[in-house]
Amino acid sequence: MMIAKRLTDFALCSVALILGAPVLLAIALAIKLDSRGPIIFKQKRVGQNGQLFEIYKFRTMRTGTPDLPTDQMLLLPSPVTKVGELLRKTSLDELPQLVNVVLGQMSLVGPRPALYNQTDLTTKREASGVLKFMPGITGWAQVNGRDELPDDVKVAADKWYCDNWNYWLDWRIIAMTFKAVLSKRGVN
């Protein structure tokens, strides 16, 4: 079944990148016109088996913003650009992660990869066996609360997903993701 998951991820993301190229180019142009800096934001994340990789996102913040988890960013003056605000509200900033999926660093669905410096979360995930799974663009924790969940609840949700994974659960999570994105629930 994991082979089917990987083949589905690769096929869907490849097609999405090709068909979505005009949208991706429009977003890139909007970012460039809105603020100085790179179009793509790269950040070290913890992947499968604890291996670090660079996740790709459209840049939504001004350059020089510190590398902090989203919940900690709320304590600072907003570094989010005007275009970045729209991209975050619509989750379009996540689209470059389709490249991470094609490269085999991520899956469409799986535990959301932690920042390299979220050692407490990573330790809890490792202890619960969550890091054995490929990280995802979306996951069970994301459709059940996103960033508003405390780490223990995220890890429990991720563990539940890993323990109960099946091909059809991924499709259910994808459907739930579209609903969560449209409702803008848990978006910061």
Overview of this protein structure:
This protein has 188 residues and is mainly α. It has one domain. The chain contains 8 helices and 4 strands. It has a two-stranded antiparallel ribbon with strand order 1-2. It has a two-stranded parallel ribbon with strand order 3-4. Strand 1 and strand 2 form a beta hairpin. The longest helix has 18 residues. The chain is globular, with a radius of gyration of 16 Å.
Number of strands: 4
H and E string: HHEEHHHEHEHH
What proportion of the residues is helical, as a percent range?
40-55%
| Largest sheet: spatial strand order | 1-2
Short description:
By secondary structure, this protein is mainly alpha-helical.
List keywords for this structure.
8 helices; mainly alpha; two-stranded parallel sheet; two-stranded antiparallel sheet; about 10% strand; about 190 residues
Task: Summarize the SSE layout with pairings.
Elements: H1 2-19, H2 21-34, E1 40-46, E2 52-58, H3 70-73, H4 82-90, H5 97-102, E3 107-109, H6 119-128, E4 136-138, H7 151-164, H8 167-183
Parallel strand pairs: 3-4
Antiparallel strand pairs: 1-2
Helix pairs in contact: 6-7
